[in-house]
Specification:
mainly alpha, single chain
Length: 142
């Protein structure tokens, strides 16, 4: 909205939209007037200023000779207290297994010998079969 130099008139209602439009219009006119000003000729060079900042450091020089030994410094503070010798440390890693020991003595004989056990198993099979047959016959008779 362009700037209107005749607004506001006495008794006009002032609104934010109209006021912003007036301000923006003034801003635009001023920008145009500033842009229309021609650039003048360059002025004379100014006087030299005071010395500027130091330049960049140069490359480092050669290493010098070793200096004299300095005086010893003050002793440092005491370190932390050592470990309590009455408390055992953690257990170490397990070692390798040793060689097998000698064979132990023969143990006492059991209540049943191998022969007795074998005879009992053979006899049980025969007895069990006969008993099973009798149970089967009895079950069928019922």
């Amino acid at each position: 909205m362009p700037y209107d130099p005749n607004w506001p008139q006495s008794g006009d209602e002032l609104t934010g939209i109209r006021l912003r439009g007036q301000w923006n219009g003034l801003h635009d006119e001023l920008e145009q007037q500033i842009a229309a000003i021609p650039a003048g000729p360059a002025g004379k060079d100014g006087k030299d200023g005071i010395d500027g900042r130091d330049g960049v450091d140069g490359a480092p020089g050669e290493k010098g000779e070793k200096g004299d030994q300095g005086i010893p410094g003050e002793p440092g503070p005491a370190g932390p207290p050592g470990a309590d010798s009455t408390v055992p440390g953690p257990a170490g890693a397990n070692g390798a297994d040793g060689q097998p020991g000698p064979e132990g003595p023969q143990g006492p004989a059991g209540e049943v010998s191998l022969t007795q056990l074998s005879d009992a198993i053979n006899g049980t099979t025969t007895i069990s079969s006969a008993r099973c047959a009798g149970i089967y016959e009895t079950a069928n008779a019922l």
